[in-house]
Amino acid sequence: MKERSLGLNGLLNGIRSVLNLLFPLITFPYVARVLSVDGLGKYNFANTYVGYFVLLAGLGISTYAVREGTKYRNNRLKISGFLSEIFSINLISTIIAYIMLIISLLIFKSLYPYAICILIFSTQIAFTTIGTEWIFIIYEDYSYITIRSILVKVLSIILLFIFVKNTNDYLIYAGITVLANAGSNIFNFFYVKKFCDIKLTLDINWKYHIKPILIIFATTIAVNIYLSSDTTILGLMKSDYDVGIYSTTVKIYNLVATLLGSVVAVTVPRLSMLLGQNKIKKYRNVFTEVINLLTVFVIPGTVGLIMLSQDIILLIAGKKYLPSVGSLKIIGLAIIFSNFSFIFINCALIPAKRETAALRNTLIPALINIILNLVLIPAFSYNGTAFSTVIAEFMAMLLNYWSARDLIRKSIISRSVMYNLISILIGSLSIIVICIFCNVLITGIPIKIIVSVILSSIFYFAVLIILKNDLAIHYWQIFRRKLKK
User: Which of 115, 193, 362, 418 makes an SS bond possible with 222, Cβ 3.0 to 4.6 Å?
Assistant: First the structure.
């Protein structure tokens, strides 16, 4: 199979991530005005509640399937057999998730007012399983899922403005959300025949599959607990006001971190394949490329977020949320650590079948995070929570690097990475200077943000080209060739 461009895949996945982030940003202001507070509350509770069962149905199957499947993707017979087993396991976990969901609805009377909305959202479980999106990741076919996302998101927004008109339409909004997130996945089931032949099977090698799947699932659960513990502890020790301020910080942090991380997330199947086929030299070359790519976007992105944090808060949330500026500046640093940690886990530890180390390296920072929250929140509130997240993410990055050092050390300390890092740090200084000037000269917040981003990007990449950053030179040459055509 012809290898797809990592740069193109990164761009496509970035577009898809932007769409996933923009959908709630576009729809929420409209929905918040149209729906009643009670209706919106039911919608959010049902969506969150079903999310736990979506997680249960998914197990650790997506990550595991990508790791193992990339080894067979050039052999249709082998990949079809493997994916049939994985899909069958996924179907079993989905049935278990539905049984547990129905039992919970029958047992807990407090769920009765939310039952219809929960059942609407529960269709996501089936659609996600049928969608088998991990197959497209194995084959690095991001063009199909990106085009599909664009079409479905546009259709969903149109349907929202047509059908959600009054306070009682929260159930319709729930249905549209399901369509936007997973409804189109049913088409995937037919499209995957391009790559393989999936069928249900009882001939499953449970002994081979189940242990790594459950360990990866445990890691996913640990990450979710780890991410939610901040808000939970803050809510228990402080007030709803503190939680509201910190929630705004976290939303913006997640938006930027996801967007920056999506550029390199597409490299996971390629690196899994190379490591699975024991092509160590090529693996290290690609890993060096990934580290350069991640560094060139994540560091300036983080610097830009910190410099523009006040304007971003004012634009997105308003003056009432200005106290979250400090916590956003603090937690912004965690973007760098969390993205590198993600690469070390998903591009090194998981492909090398070291999922037990990945689980340990998640549990230890989670424990550190909880302890730091208990110590810092009484005195520093949401700023203490933000600081504990930075420390925990930094520890996770160090632990994951240490566990994978035999595979990635040569890539991390290579001359290419070290030299490019120097040029990136110097280029990031230009972002600080541009943002300071824009803050002094421009008063309008939207215009200030737009001008700051555009000028910072131009000056940043100009500095990289002048200092002969490998990646910047590469893409500048591609851009020039296209201009000549």
Answer: 362
